[in-house]
Amino acid sequence: MCADDLRFVDDGRSDAANRALRPVCESCPILAQCEAYAVAAPRHAIVGYWAGARRGVRPRESAIRQ
């Protein structure tokens, strides 16, 4: 599964790299729970690839400094 796979929490990945993660999600036994969590969490609370989709984004450092 994805629990220890850092590819799933890297929000700077390309679309092609994210598509490569989709088969992992599709075969996951907790996909429904993962999706429910991702949808319920505030957009800024989670980042990365959750339940077969890229979720949230981290603010860019330049935006944080403003």
Describe the structure.
The protein is 38% helix and 9% strand. Mean pLDDT is 81; it is low at 61-66. The relative contact order is 0.20. The longest helix has 10 residues, at 31-40. With 66 residues, it is mostly helical. It has one domain (6-65). β1 and β2 (53-55) form a beta hairpin. The protein is globular, with a radius of gyration of 12 Å. The N and C termini lie far apart (38 Å). The protein has a two-stranded antiparallel ribbon.
Write the layout of secondary structure elements.
Elements: H1 15-19, H2 22-26, H3 31-40, E1 48-50, E2 53-55, H4 61-65
Antiparallel strand pairs: 1-2
Oligomer: single chain
User: How many strand segments?
Assistant: 2
Q: Indicate the overall shape.
A: globular
Distance between the termini: 38 Å
Largest sheet: 2 strands, antiparallel
Strand content: 5-15%
Secondary structure tally, helices: 4
Order of helical and strand elements: HHHEEH
Radius of gyration: 12 Å
Task: Find the structural class using helix and strand composition.
Answer: mainly alpha
